[in-house]
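User: Predict the complex.
Assistant: Input components as received:
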Amino acid sequence: MVVVLAGGTGGAKLARGMLDVVGAERLCVIVNTADDIEAYGVHVSPDPDLVTYWLADLIDERGYGIRGDSFGVMEALESAGEPAWFRLGDRDLAMCLIRTERLRAGERLTSAQAAVASALGVGARVLPMSDDPVRAHVRSDGRLRPFQEFMILDGGAAPIEGVELAGIERARPSPEALAAIAAAEAIVIGPSNPIISIGPILAIPGLRAALVAARAPVVAVSPFVGGRAVKGPTDAFMAQARLPLGAEGVARAYAGVLDGLVAEEPAPGVAVLEADTLMASSQARRRVAALTLEFAASLPRA
Amino acid sequence: MVVVLAGGTGGAKLARGMLDVVGAERLCVIVNTADDIEAYGVHVSPDPDLVTYWLADLIDERGYGIRGDSFGVMEALESAGEPAWFRLGDRDLAMCLIRTERLRAGERLTSAQAAVASALGVGARVLPMSDDPVRAHVRSDGRLRPFQEFMILDGGAAPIEGVELAGIERARPSPEALAAIAAAEAIVIGPSNPIISIGPILAIPGLRAALVAARAPVVAVSPFVGGRAVKGPTDAFMAQARLPLGAEGVARAYAGVLDGLVAEEPAPGVAVLEADTLMASSQARRRVAALTLEFAASLPRA
C-alpha cells in the first residue's frame, strides 16, 4: 500500500503517476478537504474531485473539471442572474450531486466520495482527510475569505496575511485514512501547496502523530522547480509563512514528519534525492512516482 | 387579488389563463408541495415549478420541465450508474439549485420559491401551500410509496388503496398564503386532482378555515371533461375516495368550502356554471379564467 497526501494539481499528478507504478489496488490518496465549499446548495470537494478526475484520465485542460463537459446548469444560473462565480460543468456537478445526496442521507464524506470514485470507475482509494468539516480561510486586506473566494473572486492575488482553519480543533482523521497510514509501505507527500493544501491535512489532530508513528518512511516531493512553484499561489503562502521557496522551505514546512525529500536541490537536515520533479507528461509523472518510491524504500526508518 | 389553488398541469393552465385576464400584480397561486422530493441532494418542487414554468411560458411539451432544456447532468448520472429515474433538465435543475441553496441557508420555502419565480421573470406570486414539509404517500399493493415514485416508477398504474400525508398535522399555511386568501376578491380552485393535489392544500390545519372565513367566493373548476380527468391519475384517486367522476364528485370533494363550481354538468347542492373547461389553447385558458371570475363575482357570499 502506497499512501499519497495530496491537495490539488501537483499531488493529483503524482497520484496519477503512482497509479501507473503500483496499480489501483495498492494506491490510497488522502486529500485535503479544507477547500470544500457549499455552492448552489451542493457540497463541492475541489481537491478530492481533482484527484479523482486525474486518476480517471478525465481532467480537463483548464486544470480542473471534466474534459469535454457541458455547462447547461451554469448558463441557466447565469441567465437567471445568480452569482455563478464557482463554475461547475454539468458532469462535474453530477459528481457533486452524487456526493451531496449521500451526505444528506447521513453518510460520511469518505463514503460519499467513494461513490464519486466508483461512478468514474476509479479503483484507487481517494480518501477525504477527515469526515469532519474543516474550512481554510485566507486573511487578506484585513478580511477573512474562504479559500475558493480568495482564489476565484480575488484572483489569489491579494497580499496574504494569514491562514485560518475553521473547525480544525474538532476534526479527526477518518478511520480509513488512519488505517491506510498505518498499513502503508510508503507515504508520499505530493507536490501540493505545503501551507494551504498539505497544511490542513497535517493540522488535523492525530494525523501528524499517525504519520510519525507509521512504519513506512514519509517522503515529500517538492512543488518547486527553478525556485518557483509550478502552479498556483504557493509562493505567496510560503512567503507569508516565512519559508524559503525551494527544498529548504519544504523541509521546514514538514519538519518532524519527513524522512526524505525529492527536490531539485539539497536541503539541510533531511535526506534529499536530487531530481527533476516537473510532471508535464505521463512519462514524467511515472518517472517521478517510481523514483520517489525507490528513494523511500532506500531510507532507514527510525 | 385573485387566488388560484393549484396542483400540477390543470391548475397551472388555469393560472396561465388568469395571468392574461388579471395581470401579474393581481395573481397569486397557492401550490401543492406534497409532491416535493429530495432528489440527488436537491429540493425539487414539481408543482410550484410546473406553475412557474407555465406562467413564464417556458413549459416543455412533455408537460413538465423547461422547453428546449439540455440533460447534461442526467446523462452524467446515468452513465455513472446512478438511479436517475427522476429526470431533471439542466435548466430545471438550476432552478432546484436556486431553491436548495436558499433552503440550506435557512430561508423559508416561500422565499426560496420566490427566487425561482424571480429568476424566470415571473411577476405573479407562486406560493408554496406551506413552509413546512408535507409528503403525499400512496398506499398501493400494501406498500406506502412517495407520490413521485408511485407515478414515475410504478407508472401511476397500481391499484390505489389510500393516501397518507406525512407531516400534515404539524404543517401550517404560510403567512403569505393566509394573507392572500384574506385579501382575495376571488378564490379559484384549479382543475387539479382533488385528492392528491388540492387535497393536501385543504388538509393543512387552518387553511380550510381560512377559505371558509375569506370574504371572497370560492369557486372550483372541474378537472373532468366528458366524464374523465383531462390528465393524470385523477380518476383512480377519485374512485378510491368513492367519489364519482364529474361535477358531483368535485362538489363532494370540496364540500363545505365551495360557493360555486364551473363544470360541464350540474351537481346537487352547489351553484354550477355549465361550461366547457378544456384548456387546450391560450384562448381557451383565457376564456375559462374569465368566465370563472365572472361567475365568482356573480355569486352571493354568506
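Residues 2-37+123-137+168-298 of chain B form a domain with the Rossmann fold fold (CATH 3.40.50.10680).
Let me know if you want any component modeled separately.
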